[in-house]
Amino acid sequence: MASDPLFLVAAAAVLGVAVILLMGIGNFGKGGDPKTANKLMRWRIIGQAVAVALILLFVLVRRGG
């Protein structure tokens, strides 16, 4: 499974979402700019949608459907 390219892309997307989330938490902890917080939230939501779509695609392909 770890050698499957689709799995690696989905895992990278999940990791990207985690990085964006940590950046947002760091920005919040510093009392950063609200515009930056909103931008990070938008990127996180987009990243989550992409990650979920890739995970669903991976499951669909692995099931043979």
Automatic annotation (TrEMBL):
Transmembrane segments: 6-29, 41-61
Keywords for the protein's UniProt record, in alphabetical order: Membrane, Transmembrane, Transmembrane helix
Entry superkingdom: Bacteria
Annotated ranges, domain HIG1: 1-65
The name this protein goes by in its record: Twin transmembrane helix small protein
